């Protein structure tokens, strides 16, 4: 192996790793899929999914395979479209994430994160966006792991605006907590240029076709943007700047 001398002043480009931790297959595409696609262009994105979505509604007509297996495959295909390197399933039952498995789930997440050593963790905001208890559990448990994980420098909480939360409320089957005001949101990612990628990823979730149509119709009324709260262990400003740079598609410094 030849050791090339480092050029004075040259910066070594470092690929960053992001671990996105979700509760169900489809949380990635229906949620921050545009951001994942943008980030994955020059960095490494991994998905950890706590369940296989076994309890979801089923839009399929023929049902030879279990819904969990089908939905796991849908997530793998969606992740491929978004540019995700690998999907890890944590194999819990949909709807069963709770205090009783808190530290067990935290342990499984921590073991995977130790292997992929992400600088960035992404998950649901603490109210779980839609209020689904599985989402809230994943948010809390991911935050617990993040605080203790050396090398994890920043956590991004995917959230929605107040207006979007209001629009989602109509006819939804559970209580939707309030969204966030613009001045509470730290990072806005414009997803117009990756919108087609996000929609293709969404369409891979064919067993959830009932949701896809509803979400796409609602999305027409809002700007193509995804929103995050950002918390960093050190130097929040630096991370905000770095992530804004990466996700705006500008050259990574
Ligand atoms: Zn979900």
TrEMBL record:
One of its GO terms (molecular function) is hydrolase activity, acting on carbon-nitrogen (but not peptide) bonds, in linear amides. It holds the Pfam family PIG-L. Gene3D superfamilies: LmbE-like. This is GlcNAc-PI de-N-acetylase.
């Amino acid at each position: 192996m030849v050791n090339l001398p480092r050029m004075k002043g040259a910066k070594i480009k470092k690929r960053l790793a992001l671990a996105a931790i979700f509760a169900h297959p489809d949380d990635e595409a229906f949620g921050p899929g545009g951001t994942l696609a943008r980030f994955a262009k020059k960095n490494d994105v991994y998905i950890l999914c706590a369940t296989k979505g076994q309890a979801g509604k089923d839009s399929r007509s023929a049902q030879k395979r279990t819904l969990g297996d089908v939905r796991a495959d849908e997530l793998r295909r969606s992740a491929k479209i978004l540019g995700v390197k690998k999907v890890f399933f944590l194999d819990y039952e949909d709807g069963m994430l709770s205090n009783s498995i808190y530290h067990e789930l935290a342990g499984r997440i921590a073991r995977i994160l130790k292997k992929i050593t992400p600088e960035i963790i992404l998950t649901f905001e603490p109210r779980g966006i839609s209020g689904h208890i599985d989402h809230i559990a994943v948010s809390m448990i991911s935050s617990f792991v993040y605080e203790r994980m050396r090398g994890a420098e920043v956590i991004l909480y995917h959230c929605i605006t107040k207006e979007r939360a209001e629009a989602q409320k109509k006819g939804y089957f559970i209580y939707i907590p309030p969204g966030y005001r613009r001045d509470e949101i730290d990072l806005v990612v414009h997803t117009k240029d990756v919108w087609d990628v996000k929609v293709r990823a969404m369409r891979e979730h064919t067993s959830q076709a009932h949701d896809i149509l509803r979400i796409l119709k609602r999305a027409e009324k809002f700007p193509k943007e995804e929103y995050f709260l950002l918390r960093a262990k050190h130097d929040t400003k630096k991370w905000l700047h770095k992530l804004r740079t990466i996700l705006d598609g500008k050259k990574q410094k």
